[in-house]
Amino acid sequence: MLNVIRLDFDPSTSIFGLSIRLETLAVAGVILAVLLLAALSSGRVNSATAAEDGSEEPAAPKLRRDDLILIAFGAVPGAVIGGRLGYALIHLDYYKLDLPTIADPGQGGYDLTLAVVLGTVTAIAVARLLAAPIDRWLGVAAVPVLLGLGLGKLATILGGAGQGSYSDASWATSYVGPGLWGSTNPDFAAVPSQAIEGGLVLAVAASLLVVPFLLRLRVRRRWRLARPGLAPRREWRLLTGRRRYLTAVSLWALARFAVAFTWRDARVLGPFTAEQLILLLVAAAALVGPEVLAGVSRVRAAMASRGAARRAAHAAAEEAATKASEVTTAAAAGAPGEAAPGDTAPGDATAPGEAAEPAS
Predict the structure, then answer these.
(1) For residues 176 and 189, what is the distance between their CA atoms, to the nearest angstrom?
(2) What is the pairing mode between strands 225-230 and 267-269?
(3) What DSSP string runs through 271-320?
(4) Range of the domain at 241
(5) Which of 96, 102, 289, 350 has its CA 20 to 30 A from that of 42?
(6) Which pLDDT tens digit goes with each residue over 216-229?
(7) For the chain, how many structural domains are there in total?
């Protein structure tokens, strides 16, 4: 037997007489931890806003923690639909022969990439219905979502899912227990892709917390002594509000893209799998999308401004032409209240050759 890491345990346990998979319990715990972390983070955002304002009432409305539950539930339908669509795209050769089976959740599986994308879209839609501050909630959700994705991948180790390509490396893993494992040929040694992806995503989450702190570090000199200090807090453009969430999603997509080279999926374009192409699109859209939308908005605003200026100039020209036409008509017909040349006013006429009577 190859010198690899052999995992020998039962992937299921019994609770109150019910058989439950360890992976399911772990994922449920991860979801609970993510919601708690998001709730705690929203409280910190509220207190920070009030402190910076310096008044009794914060300048911005507080994030309502009861909205968090509704927003989280709102992400579920989008995640389910996106997961199925992504899985169908990856296995398009199979599903194009029988399209109705895409809607059958019992046939095939779910793709994580589009589940995250569409889950975010439906969560934003629910937040908009609740009139919640979407930008601030996205900023709060960035790190918890990354932690959920990373810990969720690590939880799949308990179910044997997510094994990568076969390998005889010393750090490869194999499942030798009798349970129902999530990968094909679990007893064959393979790259632990799920563990690698989980570790990388957790590293990305840590970087979102550590990098802003490191950027504030300064070395201050006093009395020939150098000591570390912190610069004033500032809002980094890519780490604030919705940009923070989009940065987190793009970094997650790039980490998943790198790990996908160890998967067993078929290559569809050179060395890339179908999901890697989707991941590249997601990362590009998250990074460049806001800039493109902002550019389009600026172009539309400039075009609207020019159109308004042209319409104003055209209206002014029409008004000037109308006034000029009125003046010309009045000059031709005679201005009202003025006598035409050779006319006399009634009652003041004198006979030809007669002089007017001198006034007495």
Answers:
(1) 10
(2) unpaired
(3) TEEHHHHHHHHHHHHHHHHHHHHHHHHHHHHHHHHHHHHHHHHHHHHHHH
(4) 5-63+133-287
(5) 289
(6) 777 666 666 666 76
(7) 1
